[in-house]
Amino acid sequence: MQSVALIDYGSGNLRSAEKALVRAADGSAEIVVTCDPDLIRRADRVVLPGVGAFRACMEAFESRPGLEDALQEVVQQKGRPFLGICVGMQLVATRGLEFGETKGLGWIPGDVRKITPADPHAKVPHMGWNALTRLSGPDLITGIGASPMYFTHSFAIFPDDDAHVAAWVDHGGAFPAAVARGNVAGVQFHPEKSQSAGLALLARFLEWRP
């Protein structure tokens, strides 16, 4: 049975994500909530959640001894499938621009910056259900179709190369809702809060062969 490391670094909707992954796996995978570098190195897949500000999440992430080195080894060197959720997705960028500039993991070159809807009626934070548009990239993303997903955020990742944008969303203007580069994927929405469509995405991640 494959193992999935759900990274616990003190930030994220961890229990909801765990329950959703367990349900999506339906007995086909062991979901391990951990920040233990040794367990992470042995995992077949990695999920990085995150809720809150980019800087606070990155500081919490870096405060776990050996965590970043273990993830770099598993994701970047061994090429195991990775899924970032919300701020966990944003951390793969080069830098975040929330409360000043903070260095990210740099797996997908680009910045995380505040969304600025052109429509004055589109509120920030962006909260609620929105359909995905312009899906591309791996079938992990394209296979779920233009399903409405649940968002709650004020910042989003903007890759340097639009080829790394796997889906868009419109909230008074378009911005990336999902990214993908090689074995690294991320979603700005919360699949664990997105009912059947979110579970379908998690199930696809458990079967993804990038």
From TrEMBL:
IGPS catalyzes the conversion of PRFAR and glutamine to IGP, AICAR and glutamate. The HisH subunit catalyzes the hydrolysis of glutamine to glutamate and ammonia as part of the synthesis of IGP and AICAR. The resulting ammonia molecule is channeled to the active site of HisF. It comes from Phenylobacterium conjunctum. Heterodimer of HisH and HisF. NCBIfam families: IMP_synth_hisH. Pathway: Amino-acid biosynthesis; L-histidine biosynthesis; L-histidine from 5-phospho-alpha-D-ribose 1-diphosphate: step 5/9. This is Imidazole glycerol phosphate synthase subunit HisH. Its EC number is 4.3.2.10, 3.5.1.2. It comes from the Bacteria. The lineage of its organism: Bacteria, Pseudomonadati, Pseudomonadota, Alphaproteobacteria, Caulobacterales. It catalyses: 5-[(5-phospho-1-deoxy-D-ribulos-1-ylimino)methylamino]-1-(5-phospho-beta-D-ribosyl)imidazole-4-carboxamide + L-glutamine = D-erythro-1-(imidazol-4-yl)glycerol 3-phosphate + 5-amino-1-(5-phospho-beta-D-ribosyl)imidazole-4-carboxamide + L-glutamate + H(+); L-glutamine + H2O = L-glutamate + NH4(+).
